[in-house]
Amino acid sequence: MIDVFLLLGTNLGEREMYLQQAVQHIAEEVGAVIKLSSVYETQSWGKTDEPDYLNQVILLQTELPPLALLTRVLHIESILGRVRKERWGARVIDIDVLFYGDQVINEPQLQVPHPRLHERRFTLEPLAEIAPELIHPVLNNNVLSIKNALKDTLIVKKL
């Protein structure tokens, strides 16, 4: 079994419901959910005129290889009504693969660790809550240290 960290985000509709449904689908279709962070409300990143997000990080264990995991995650987004219109646009659900064990993956459709996680407070706050000592396999630093060195000033508040 591989430990996988996923970031869930939603800024449209019944945000809490979308997070809950995403976790349920992930548990049923991807692997056992081991830990869930608190839910955090965050300002929109990248496209700052969008509604605020709810974000949550989950740790799960799976036997799926990385690209099969990605396929399932994209399928779950689709089931929940995700429509891809524009980069960083509003969405009912977004599921990002942050870490896949300690592997470094550079495929055209999947980069792991997530290439911008070290720049994003909305990712690092919930991740540091459940895995502060997790070592980033590229930066060779733990999540808490990366979070503490962050320059991102976006407002991220724990609900």
TrEMBL record:
Pathway info: Cofactor biosynthesis; tetrahydrofolate biosynthesis; 2-amino-4-hydroxy-6-hydroxymethyl-7,8-dihydropteridine diphosphate from 7,8-dihydroneopterin triphosphate: step 4/4
Could you list this entry's UniProt keywords, alphabetically sorted. Answer: ATP-binding, Folate biosynthesis, Kinase, Nucleotide-binding, Transferase
Q: Which Enzyme Commission number(s) are on file for it?
A: 2.7.6.3
Q: Which InterPro entries match?
A: Hppk, Hppk_sf
Query: Which SUPFAM superfamilies does the annotation name?
Result: 6-hydroxymethyl-7,8-dihydropterin pyrophosphokinase, HPPK
Keyword NADP included in the entry's annotation: no
What highest taxon heads this organism's lineage? Bacteria
Domain 7,8-dihydro-6-hydroxymethylpterin-pyrophosphokinase positions = 87-98
Checking PANTHER family in the record gives: 2-AMINO-4-HYDROXY-6-HYDROXYMETHYLDIHYDROPTERIDINE PYROPHOSPHOKINASE (PTHR43071)
Family of this protein: Belongs to the HPPK family.
Q: What does this protein do?
A: Catalyzes the transfer of pyrophosphate from adenosine triphosphate (ATP) to 6-hydroxymethyl-7,8-dihydropterin, an enzymatic step in folate biosynthesis pathway.
Protein name, as recorded: 2-amino-4-hydroxy-6-hydroxymethyldihydropteridine pyrophosphokinase
- Organism equals Mucilaginibacter gynuensis
Gene (UniProt) = folK
